[in-house]
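Hi Q.,

Before the meeting this afternoon, I wanted you to have the zinc ion prediction in hand. No need to reply - just skim if you have a minute. The sequence and ligand are here:
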Amino acid sequence: MKSGSNKLKEFFRKYRFRRVATIVAGAAALRLLVWFLIYRFASNDRTRTYEIYTSRVFPVITQPMKSIAKLFPFSVGETLVIIMAALFVAGLVICTVRAVRNKKSARIIAPAPKKPAGFARLLVMLLVAALLIGGNFFVYGGINYKSLTFKELSGLDVKSTDIGTLEKLCLFLGQKATEARQGLPLDEKGFVVDSRSAQEILSASPAGYAKASEEFPCLSGKFTPPKAAIFSEIMSYEQIAGIFPIVFTESIVNKNSPAYDLPSVACHELAHQLGFAQEDEANFIGYLAAICSDDPLYVYSGYYSGFCYAMNKLYNFDRDKWAAVWNSPGIDSEGISNDMRRSNEIWDSYRKKAEVVSKVSEAVNDSYLKSNDISDGTHSYGRVVDLLIAYYSASGENPFA
Ligand SMILES: [Zn+2]
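Predicted structure with the ligand bound:
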């Protein structure tokens, strides 16, 4: 039986928890509401949103998290998820054990309490965590969906195009990819390989941005190289190559991808660190940063990714022209298609093992993008081809002339 002083102590402990929980939950809810309203109305004046939030506030408020992430060789965000999940499970176990004990003693001494206080506390903590995570989405980058786009900032003239231009783009990128592939080490099966670890490859990703920013100043900024994901296996089942989880601003890349896919994915994720939220634009910026790198693997990865996107689009419109590109002189069709096949085999092997997981993941990403006003959802990744055509149409290297 509890003494009077113990009862008093418990009363104050409960009271303190309630008071602290109310203050923290209230502050988190208010923060969520205020930033949601800013997000909601940010698109009314996208220029001002860019000038105030994207170019000034966003780099400053994301820097502490990026600096913390830089201190560790592993993903801090994923580690926090593991710690929080472990604490939640531990809390659940402790509450269950206490509830069972209370029930047993209550049978002898007094009626059992209607609601065990431990479970209520756990629910309050979950609510606070949800409010903080929800708020983080708007604070740390969700508003960038409502800001000026790279197209607007760069002045690239993106317009509808014809099959002939698309075919020329495919030929150009195929030849560039072929040139870049020459001299890269191959394994016994003829796939491009690299002696560096996935993390070492990813750490080289910011280098190309310096040169890319000479042409497009909006691409300059401070970067934290992506981390090789601890949860790469789970990401593979979800068909996710890389992610910039806005709630913790640390880029993560799936290390199960082949070496030649890692650079373009890493550079894509760094584009999100600059505040460019649209996926087609992150693809294009990632392409540009990769081909601007001095690292031969990056250069190949950039041209290879651009070639893959362009060829997929051409395949959908004209299969004869698609086949003609593959058979063109100057394109290493065997080598590049080998790499494509290898990449597809890896992703397909995970998809076949858990098709439901990959479909749910795709649907979630599609809904997420659509909820942020990207009407074509996951199809928006492929619009990178329009940006490539606009870019090369305006460059001195114009392959369409
Ligand atoms: Zn992205």
